[in-house]
UniProtKB/TrEMBL annotation:
Domain Mannitol dehydrogenase C-terminal: 289-475
Keywords from the UniProt entry: NAD, Oxidoreductase
Name of the protein in its database record: Mannitol dehydrogenase domain protein
UniProt-listed SUPFAM superfamilies: 6-phosphogluconate dehydrogenase C-terminal domain-like (SSF48179), NAD(P)-binding Rossmann-fold domains (SSF51735)
Superkingdom assignment: Bacteria
Keyword NAD carried by entry: yes
Length: 491
């Protein structure tokens, strides 16, 4: 027996389930417009704001924007539930459910782009935050410059009133604000990129200059792009999760979020138009985010890449299974300790040894059942941002990057689409049409893949780097994934 989740039924849920006790109808301004309403945002930023609202510490609310056509089902579900949804924290101690109410409105951009532009341009919008994945910023990883030739960018420059990508919507709204003599809003990236605010600013201003140099100049003078570091492992919602929420908690929720108890948010305190008091509910406001960003990206995100491709190649499905495999666990620990940690600066208030221990425990959480296929999506965006910076720094230090090279080789082998037994592996990759044929063409030779300057830049000029990747990839083809994993776990 379950009760459909909506505003009218909120009071009927048992006291053991935390529900919004604040009046959501009065949360009209100020607002944060968030682009990319996926599971992570709903398990992270929306939860922090719900905590603030629950303590009566703010009047801010969220308006979500579903950007992509395949978001339609989630949009319809959220609308039918009055934007309410369930967050379930899963750990070995059990499951805990709460209903989140901080999102009070949601828009579907492909259906009504003008409504999205008007909402972002409205005076009540003070912050626009984004979780659009690393690939959504149009960075040429080889040069670090803006990819102005991307089809999305070319479309939005040619059709400024009918944009498709986040940059197009933001530019259209900011142009309206500029013409109406309003101040801009803060533009806050919550994606996993080192110096994400700085990268966002560089890429977006490059786009704005192509659209209107006056807009770009105005933004450079008046807008703010704070850096931030976000962390919470959040697997994709499945039918199994929906059934669990219904049977365990009696909640009929078409799009719940399942996540781990841990969450972290470090934010550069640089906002041009006000902000909620996130520090009152556990976020860390600081003037220097970079040490925290590098720590998280090079230890957590790079380790995710290290475990997911080899995990799929040897037949695992979930992250916790890779931590039960002593060989993969060893690869991850050595990459953390020997290759990533030496490239990090001291992190205020953080014991890196304890942090790494906590990461292994989080990866090993069997309740989360985080799918390797999810972790391995968009490798062409993630490998250059998470793994290659470690390689660059280790080469500069004349130190080893064996496990990073192993990870890159495992990615190349994964891109062929089948494991050693001929079993198909799921590939979700924006550059699939380019990288998969090159991976198959190259086989044991990494040079075709390494020739992609937009991914690897000048790294292939390093004989040491090419030799390390070649050695690992050749082993994958000559000995197989299992034997290669066994060999590298003993290096």
């Amino acid at each position: 027996m379950s009760t459909q989740l909506n505003t009218a039924n909120l009071s009927t849920f048992p006291a053991s389930i935390q529900t919004p006790k604040y009046d959501r109808t009065h949360l009209t301004q100020p607002i944060i417009v968030h682009i990319g309403v996926g599971g992570f945002h709903r398990a992270h930023q929306a939860v922090y704001l719900d905590d603030l609202l629950g303590q009566g510490l703010t009047d801010w609310s969220l308006c979500g924007v579903c950007l992509l056509p395949h978001d339609k089902r989630m949009y319809d579900t959220m609308k039918s539930q009055d934007c309410l949804y369930t967050v379930v924290e899963q750990s070995s101690a059990g499951n805990n459910a709460r209903i989140i109410g901080s999102i009070t409105n949601i828009l579907f951009a492909p259906e009504n782009p003008q409504a999205v532009i008007e909402k972002i341009a409205s005076p009540e919008c003070r912050i626009v935050s984004l979780t659009i994945t690393e690939g959504g910023y149009y960075v040429n990883s080889g040069t670090g410059e803006f990819d102005a030739n991307h089809p999305d960018i070319q479309h939005d420059l040619a059709n400024p009133d009918m944009p498709k990508c986040a940059f197009g919507f933001l530019a259209a709204a900011l142009e309206l604000r500029r013409k109406n003599r309003m101040i801009p809003f803060t533009l806050m990236s919550c994606d996993n990129m080192q110096s994400n605010g700085d990268v966002f600013k560089k890429m977006f201003l490059a786009f704005a200059r192509l659209r209107n140099p006056e807009l770009a100049q105005w933004l450079a003078e008046h807008a703010s792009f704070p850096n931030s570091m976000v962390d919470r492992i959040t697997p994709a919602t499945t039918d199994e999760h929906r059934a669990m929420v219904k049977t365990s908690f009696g909640i009929g929720d078409g799009w719940p979020v399942v996540t781990e108890p841990f969450k972290q948010w470090v934010i550069e305190d640089h906002f041009c138009n006000g902000r909620p008091a996130w520090e009152k509910v556990g976020a860390q406001m600081t003037q220097e985010v970079l040490p925290y960003e590098k720590m998280k990206i090079r230890l957590l995100n790079a380790s995710h890449q290290a475990l997911c491709y080899i995990g799929m190649l040897v037949g695992h499905q979930f992250a916790h299974e890779t931590m039960e495999d002593r060989r993969i666990r060893t690869i991850v620990e050595r990459m953390m300790d020997d290759e990533a940690t030496p490239t990090l600066s001291p992190v205020p208030g953080v014991d890196l040894t304890e942090y790494k221990k906590t990461l292994i425990e989080r990866f090993a959480n069997p309740a989360i059942r985080d799918q390797l296929a999810r972790i391995g999506t968009e490798g062409s965006a993630r490998i250059p941002k998470f793994v290659l910076p470690i390689v660059v720094d280790q080469l500069a230090r004349q130190k080893k990057m064996t496990m990073c090279a192993f990870t890159i080789a495992a990615w190349f082998r994964y891109l062929t689409g089948v494991d050693d037994n001929g079993k198909k592996m799921p590939i979700i990759e924006p550059m699939e049409a380019k990288v998969c044929p090159l991976a198959k063409q190259g086989g044991a030779d990494p040079k075709p893949m390494l020739s992609l300057h937009e991914l690897f830049g000048e790294l292939p000029k390093s004989e040491i780097f090419v030799a390390e990747v070649s050695r690992a990839l050749r082993s994958f083809y000559e000995k197989g994934a299992v034997a290669t994993l066994e060999e590298y776990s003993k290096i």
